[in-house]
Amino acid sequence: MLITASAPGKVILFGEHAVVYGKPAIAVAVNKKAHLTIKERQDSKLKAHIKGLDINASLDLENIPTINHEFQRGILKYVLKSWEIIQEKQKTVPVKGLDIILNIEMPIGAGLGSSAAVTVATLSALNKYYKADLERDEIANLAYQVELKVQGAASPIDTTLSTYGGAIYLSTNRKAEKLPVKYELPLIIGHTPREGNTEELIRIVRKRMEKYPNSIKPIFESIEQVTMEAREALLEGDHEKLGELMNINHGLLDALGVSTPTLSRMIYQAREAGALGSKITGAGGGGSIIAYSPGKTDEVLQELGKLEKAFQIKLSEEGVTTNIQ
Ligand code: PMV
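Above: inputs. Below: predicted complex with PMV.
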């Protein structure tokens, strides 16, 4: 039996960082996915291979060491934690080994939700393999628990979008409202290697907030206003307004201290090449920018490609899918 699962990544369109302080955010699932295949083994080994990255890991499921094993590296932590969480749900299942092959279409650690996509795909495939009968809501919730356990902190944005797809507005009361976006929403990603991880960037913003609370709190409030207006613009398909609001949101993120010279260069280059709007997406400090350029996609892609890695994405209405062969 061969089980495959595919789950989309995401981009944050509006509200990153302010969302950590209870403000709303808008994010969409994108057509860059994590694909996972599992196949039963005859022994009790869990083996994983990430295609294209030359990453291989192996451990004995009957005797999992507490430290120093190959599943403690990077994104494989999410795979093992997902396996452990499913095991807790299925205490009676005998331990049998598995071969896991991952194909991750988005760059890892670039703010495109690779860890959530891998987690949701792993949980969904294991759910089928162990016949755990988990509903989609439970998968989303368990995936969020995996992210919390591995990272210590996480927002439910990534795991929600990897599970359900589409566009969401995360409101101040932490409810994810599905936004019916009826057009393709073509976006360009410009991507540079990240200097700091999400936690470090959250710390940088917190320090700035503690040092200048009277200046920084109003920035969070402005981001909230921008996000609320962007929700309307997105629903109405007001492309000009969406672009302008992205530019305003970027200025506010810059003021929070999470831009870098390379990100700024890409952002301004994208606007010069015809983007209606461009901004950091995700935590910043390197990582990715998004540019919104309906009708000018090729021009923006070409210009950004001269500076850094650039590729096109669009909204994915489809969430996680599984298939048994
Ligand atoms: O770059 P990412 O996808 O890790 O985005 C982080 C966005 C923050 O708002 C900074 C943190 C969060 O969990 O929402």
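The domain at 187-313 is CATH 3.30.70.890 (Alpha-Beta Plaits).
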